[in-house]
Amino acid sequence: MNQMPLHNATGFTLVELLIALVVASLVLAAVYSSLQSQHASYLAQDQVVEMQQNLRAAMNIMARELRMAGYDPTLRAWREPTPASVLKATARQLQISMDSNENGVVVDPDPKPPNTETNEIVAFGFGSGIDVQPADGIADDGAANLGRNTGGGFQPIAENIHAVGFAYAFDANGNGSLDFNDLNNNHVQDPGETTIWAVDTNDDGEWDDLDNNGDGFINTDDLLALAAGAPPPPVQAMAGSHTGIAMHPGDVRAVRIWLLARASLPDWHYTNTGTYVLGQQVVTVNDHFRRQLLETVVDCRNMGLVRQ
To answer: Which residues contact 164 (CB under 8 A, 6 or more apart)?
Structure first.
């Protein structure tokens, strides 16, 4: 009796299986790496958008109210004890007043109903306990809420703000124009003669121009030179150039604002070693947080400024 021939069943060898497994692993690793990269990019862009929206909203609120500084439709709210004016003008906080209810005085002495805020005195900056070590316009914990205070304490208008800075252009001689560096003493602002943007950097009651080199910009070129090769410290303060002009907040006619926002979460695939100028303060970081800096200039249009 003849036996039927036996046929070996076809299949994969162990070597072939191992090769297939390695190739599949490489493909899956590439796919996972691509997805992870795209996810990280999405998160980073999402945080950037969040910072931008945060900054723009806060700046819009501040600009809108700063334009109302000194609002006095009855021409009676200029009187003491609280005139419609700029009341406080430091490198880290700003306070303004206005006669918003048009009753001839700032802050109705008998508001109706009792204890109602009139929003006629408004301050901007960090609230109590946020910026104290030292008080320099930089949040002690790295980021905090920027606040608006109308008398009942600072209420948040922006989250995750690392630092805030202000500088001021003023009209000390009352001629309706911003004071400038009159290099040739002809009382005309010629090309190259820059507007003074100042704060009282030395607490001596005088305006100090932050544009130390007179190039029209406030940047790291205005800092005192560091020793060659020395790394920049985390915070540097502009010394400012003495103007000899007495510092009166009521002389302020325009405000320059800097806001530095920080992402809510670190990005461990990103290292930030940037330097940011916020008026008097220059901040250098070295961490994994993304940041956005926004700067704007606001004219106090009710304070007697005449634009040419």
So the answer is: 92, 124, 125, 126, 137, 146, 257, 258, 259, 260, 278
| Mode of pairing for the β-strands spanning 281-284 and 86-89 | unpaired
Can you tell me the distance from the alpha carbon of 307 to that of 6, in angstroms, rounded to the nearest whole number? Answer: 103
Residue 39 DSSP SS3: helix
Amino acid of residue 152: G
- State both tokens at 23: 């190739």
User: Residue 141: which of 46, 257, 30, 262 has the closest Cα?
Assistant: 262
The C-alpha atoms of residue 296 and residue 182 are separated, in whole angstroms, by: 25
235: left (phi over 0), alpha (psi -120 to 50) or beta: beta
Over residues 217-253, the pLDDT tens digits come to 999 999 977 666 678 889 999 999 999 999 999 999 9
Q: Can you give the pLDDT at residue 1?
A: 53
Where exactly are the structural domains of the chain? Answer: 40-299
